[in-house]
Write a structure and sequence with these properties.
CATH class of the largest domain: Alpha Beta
Strand order of the largest sheet: 6-7-8-3-9-10
CATH architecture of the largest domain: 3-Layer(aba) Sandwich
CATH topology of the largest domain: Rossmann fold
Number of domains: 2
Largest sheet: 6 strands, mixed
Number of strands: 15
Oligomer: single chain
Length: about 325
């Protein structure tokens, strides 16, 4: 049976929640090895990953456009997607064992884009459920996300940001040594995005795989996994990818019309490594020191509305990976 891009195996979803029990004995964080992982849909391949390895204790950020396969990869590793091929392991156990074993699942912390809980629970009920399942609950995690203040709130009536904070507690408060997060900063204001960043930074003994869409999230990563059309396009430290894909500098130019932008694109040939056009009358040019010379030359020209020059950044890298790259 094939699944559409948005279908998840409902029959496997209960397996994600481990049976109540005592906390697992302390164990070193597991590495993750994917020899081959294939998910097919009626439209073709939704995911085809080969020879992917995460070191124990490493944090890896998954980036890419909508539909690139970020969530599908996380759900396939969790056993929530029907896979056509699933070869590899987490630590000393197979991928399938982690999806089935209550003992192994208690070592995991998971945040997906949607959480299915019984209707009518208050936040205190959700916290009690977490404590019964995992056998431990770090008060410091609850306090960092200001969740105790919401204990009497109805979970179903929480705002997007409030619910995200409770879901993060469910993923992190038992101090798991394997953490899978799907866009953990979504819905959070600056205060709680910073708090979540500090929490994850402090979990250096855990192996973390997170789908991300912000430079703040990406700054947590030891390596970045760029996915495109369900496959790995690049896998390296973010700073390395900025240097290799973009270059040292970014020159962002707004022009008065699209025709002027096309003339500037032609003029910049040889001075840029990559060109990205957010809008027809805008160009983001990336490359080396020649861009600084070009930036000075553009100041004051009649066709130019604004010029911004600086170091290429993680935000630039995310935009290029999400919206597509255009080589000069």
């Amino acid at each position: 049976m094939s699944l559409s891009d948005n279908e998840v195996r409902d029959d496997l979803a209960p397996a994600l929640i481990p049976k109540p029990g005592a906390p697992s004995a302390t164990a070193p964080p597991p590495g993750v090895r994917v020899d081959r992982l294939i998910v097919k849909t009626k439209a073709g391949f939704a995911l085809d990953i080969q020879d992917l390895a995460l070191a124990a204790g490493e944090t890896v950020a998954i980036v890419g456009a909508n539909g690139a396969g970020k969530t599908t990869l996380l759900e396939a590793l969790l056993g929530l997607r029907k896979t056509d091929v699933a070869e590899g392991g987490i630590g000393e156990a197979s991928l399938q064992a982690w999806a089935r074993s209550p003992r192994l699942r208690r070592r995991m912390g998971v945040l997906l884009q949607r959480t299915a809980l019984p209707f009518g629970l208050r936040v205190r009920d959700v916290l009690d459920l977490h404590r019964r399942i995992y056998g431990s609950q770090a008060q410091a995690v609850l306090e960092a996300l200001d969740v105790p203040r919401m204990r009497n709130f109805n979970y179903d009536w929480l705002s997007r940001g409030q619910r995200q904070r409770v879901d993060l507690v469910m993923a992190l408060a038992h101090r798991p040594d394997l953490i899978l997060l799907d866009e953990p900063f979504t819905g959070l204001d600056q205060q709680f995005a910073t708090a979540t960043h500090h929490l994850l930074s402090g979990m250096s003994s855990a192996t973390v795989l997170l789908a991300c869409h912000s430079a703040h999230e990406l700054s947590l990563a030891d390596r970045m996994l760029w996915m495109r059309d369900g496959r790995v396009a690049a896998f390296a430290p973010p700073a390395t990818l900025v240097k290799d894909m973009l270059g040292e500098y970014a020159l962002k130019v707004s022009l008065h019309d699209a025709a002027s932008a096309e003339r500037l694109r032609a003029r910049a040939q040889g001075a840029v490594r990559l060109v990205h056009a957010p809008r027809p009358e805008q160009l983001h040019l990336f490359g080396g020191s020649d861009l600084e010379t070009l930036a000075h030359a553009l100041i004051g020209e009649p066709a130019i509305a604004s010029v911004e020059f600086g170091a290429a950044s993680y935000t630039d890298l995310l935009h290029v990976c999400a919206l597509g790259d255009t080589h000069a």
